[in-house]
Structure formats: structure tokens, C-alpha cells
Amino acid sequence: MAHAPAVATVIVAYESSAELPGTLAALRAQLEPGDELVVVDNASSDASGAVARAAGATVLELERNVGFAGGCQAGAGATSAPLLFFLNPDCVPAPGALAALRAAAAERPDWGAWQALVTLEGGEQVNTSGGVTHWLGMGWAGQVGAPVAAAGEALRDVSFASGAALAVRREAWEAVGGFDPEYFMYSEDLDLSLRLRLAGWGVGIAPAARVEHAYDFDKGAYKWFLLERNRWWTVLGAYPTRLLVPLLPALLGAELALLVVAARGGWLREKLRAQAAVLRSLPWALRRRRRVQAQRRVPVRVFAGGLSATLDSPFLGPVAELAPVRTLQAAYWGLVRRLVRV
To answer: What residue intervals traverse the membrane (predicted)?
Structure first.
């Protein structure tokens, strides 16, 4: 049996002094010789760094808040273990979680990244059992709110793996460049997963690894700005040309519907800001696209197979539930899928 790989756990902390003690205590009990534990302090004003040091972690103090994506990049660069494990500071790994993630590395050598089964507080309901990626570039937590048993027990592929408790082979991480620091936070896990899949790596979930997450989706309107800006960066970067071109009319048309959703949801200003940010960043986004597409190793139809036509996100509101909307977008996606198979 192959030797279990050493793990470098990276926790990006920002004003996290209250959450870190429980997370680090649960994690340290699972570390093995050769493992690394790094807490990246994103210029916190509280005692996050001191709390992490007291718990025995190596602390990397940054001079400014570079966000989750930039913090993970810094933490990965400060470690050397062959398996990276990114863990949110408000996530508490259950006993055996790290061992299950190590085991998945041996059982699925084709996987570049995989997540733990992330549960809501109490551990009885799913937070995410693997992300769902709609062809519009939107991603959301799979099976959120479902009983934990619904996630099953077997290793399986997912469209994208959650960054809340994410294992990544260093080989794969370095091959595709890791998280893009420009994202700051939100959707960097979806973007990384799509780029890994584009480059020929698998992405999955190891349900035997359980992590309890103090989850709250509603973190202010600014989150919607980041989600929408980053969604477009991901689509422009990861979607192969033969997929992107026929999708562009629908992607642009969907912007009108999203303006309605944003207005009803109270984040119209952030949606408009996101659109402006994407337009301003187009030269950078297209340069990035050339780099990403140069790494493609899979047929377009295979990449497209990981995208969904369902609009069952709990966060999109009533517009997505309208029968004509659901039927039209599913039919459009079916047509595009047939085109890319030609």
C-alpha cells in the first residue's frame, strides 16, 4: 500500500481569533510526522496571529489583506508537502477527516483536487457535497440543507470542489497556477476546478472526510459584486472557444434577467459595478484566457459534460423558478451540447 502523503494545511485567517482555537485543536490531533500547518494572517486587527501561534501553527503575517485567493497562494508557497489542504478558519474537521483525504489521494490518482463533505453546524445537514456549475458560470453548493446520509459514502466526481475544505495535489496546483489572486475571494474554487478539469485532472469529493462549517451565505451586497465579476472571469478564462462562442448570445441575454434578479434582491448597484469591472478588465481577462486555454488537454464535449442545465440554486430567487426560463435555458444548452459534439 502506498505511503500516505504528507499534508500541508493552509488556513487563511482574517479577524478569526474566535474561530481558530476550535479549528486548530481538531486539526492538530490529526497531523502526522512530516505534515505542515500554516495560518496566513491577512492583516487582521484582532489576535488571530497570536492565537494561531499559541496553538502551534506557523504564522505567515501579510502586510495587507489579499483575500482568500491571495492568502492561499502565499500559504502554498510557504510549504512543501505534496498534498495541500485549504481549510476555512470556521471549519472544524471531524476525527479521521485528514486520513480520509489522504486515502483519496491514493485511491483516485487521476484527481487533482477533492473536497471533504462539508456540513452545517451540528453535523446533520449538508453544507456542500460538491459544487454544481451551471453553464452560465454560476456555481452553488450541492445538496445544501439535505441530510448528511444523502451525500453517500463513496468517492465520486463533482463539477467543482469547495474551497472551504479542499485538498489539492501540489503537482496539479502548480501546473495550473493555483488560485488566481485577482479573484480576492468567492468563486476561486470553481475557477480552479474548471481549470484543473480543462487540463485533464479529475475533481471530486471524499465523503468520509467530514468538516463542520459555521456557514452563512448572506455576507452583504459586496459579495454579489465579487461573485458576478469573478463568474465572468471564470467563463472567459476556462470555457473553450467552441463552447464560449455559441454560449455568448445567451450569456449576454442572461445579463438582462440578472439585472431584474439583482434589483429585486437589493444588489443592483453591485451587479452594475461588476459589469463595469469586467469590461475594464477585458484586456487582462483575454491574456489570462490564452494562458488557461493553452493548458487544455480534454475534448470540449468532455469539459461541457461537467456543466449543468438545471437552475436549482437556492440563491437565484423566483426568476430562475419560472417554467419558461427553465425550459428555454435547458433547450439552449441541449443545442450547444449537440454542437460541441460535432
So the answer is: none
Tens-place pLDDT, residues 40-90: 999 999 999 999 999 999 999 999 999 999 999 999 999 999 999 999 999
**Cα–Cα distance, 99 to 31 (Å, whole number):** 9
Residues whose CB falls within 8 Å of the CB of residue 243, separated by 6 or more in sequence, listed in order: 300, 303, 304, 336, 340
| Contact in structure between 187 and 230 (CB atoms under 8 Å) | yes
* Residue 289 clears pLDDT 90, i.e. is over it: yes
Give the separation between CA 132 and CA 270, rounded to whole angstroms: 23
146-205, pLDDT tens digit by residue? 999 999 999 999 999 999 999 999 999 999 999 999 999 999 999 999 999 999 999 999
Instruction: Report pTM.
Output: 0.94
Q: In order of start, what are the domains of the chain with their CATH numbers?
A: 7-213 (3.90.550.10), 222-341 (no CATH)
Q: At what angle do helices 188-198 and 67-77 cross, to 10 degrees?
A: 60
**Residues near 197 by Cβ (< 8 Å), separated by ≥ 6?**
203, 298, 303, 306
